Amino acid sequence: MCCSLASARNLCDNARYMATDHIQRLRAAIRDVPDFPKPGILFKDITPILSDPELFHLAIDSFVDGARALGISKVVGIDARGFLFGAPVAYMLGVGFVPVRKKGKLPYRCESAAYQLEYGEAVVEMHVDALQAGERVVLIDDLLATGGTAAAAIKLIEKMGAQVAAVQFLIELEFLHGRKNLGATPICALLNF
Ligand code: AMP
Q: Which residues contact 153 (CB under 8 A, 6 or more apart)?
C-alpha cells in the first residue's frame, strides 16, 4: 500500500523534517515584491531560488523526496511556474510530465475547467490524451493562494479519470485558506507564510 494516505502524510513529514537551515535558506531567498502585478498584492518571487544552483537543488529534492513513495506515473505542472519545478521533478522520478495551461495555449484538443478570479473567470486546459484513466499523479505549483487554480487543475485531472495522489507547493499563503478549496486531496507546502 505504498500509495495510501499514509504515504501522502510522509510527503508532508519529509518537508517538515527537511533540515531547518535548508528551509530557512529557501525562505530567505523568496523575494517579496509589493504591488505586483497590481496594487495590494505582495508577490512572492521565486526566481532567486531558480538562479541559485544549491537552492534549486534543495527545492527539487524536497519535491522528489515527497513524491517518490506515492506510486505516480505522471507529474502535472500548473502554468507557468509549476512547470519550472514540476518538469525537473518528473525527470528525477523517471515519470512523464503534463502541463496544465491557461486557455488557448495548448495546440491539440483540450479538456477545460473554469475557476473564479476576483473579477470574472479564468479557464485552464489539458490535452485530452495527456492522462489515462486510473493513472496516479502529483500536481505541482509554486504557490497556493486562494486555491482556485489548483482546484481547477484537480478537476481536469479527475475528468480524465486519473487520481491526484498529492498536491505539492513550494509556498503556501496560509492566511488565504486555499486548502479549503482542495477538498480531501493531500497537500504539502514546503514554506508557509
Ligand atoms: P490561487 O489560484 O489564488 O491559489 O493562485 C495561485 C496561482 O497564482 C499560482 O500559480 C501562483 O503562481 C500565482 N500567485 C497567486 N498569488 C501569488 C503571490 N502572492 N505571489 C506569487 N504568485 C502568486
A: 76, 78, 100, 113, 124, 126, 139, 141
Residue 20: per-residue pLDDT: 87
pLDDT for residue 128: 98
The CATH-assigned architecture of domain 5-192 is 3-Layer(aba) Sandwich (3.40)
pTM here?
Answer: 0.93
Instruction: Tell me whether residue 163 is exposed, middle or buried, using C-beta atoms within 10 angstroms of its C-beta: 0 to 12, 13 to 18, 19 or more.
Output: middle
Measured in angstroms, how far is the CA atom of residue 144 from the centroid of ligand 1?
6
Tens of pLDDT, residues 135-172: 999 999 999 999 999 999 999 999 999 999 999 999 99
Contact 185, 137 (CB under 8 A): no
Check pocket membership of 78 for ligand 1, CB cut-off 6 A.
yes
Q: What residue ranges do the domains of the chain occupy?
A: 5-192
- For ligand 1, whether the C-beta of 43 sits within 6 Å is yes
41 lines ligand 1 (CB under 6 A): yes
What spacing in Å lies between the alpha carbon of 149 and ligand 1's midpoint? 8
CA 172 / ligand 1 centre spacing (Å): 9
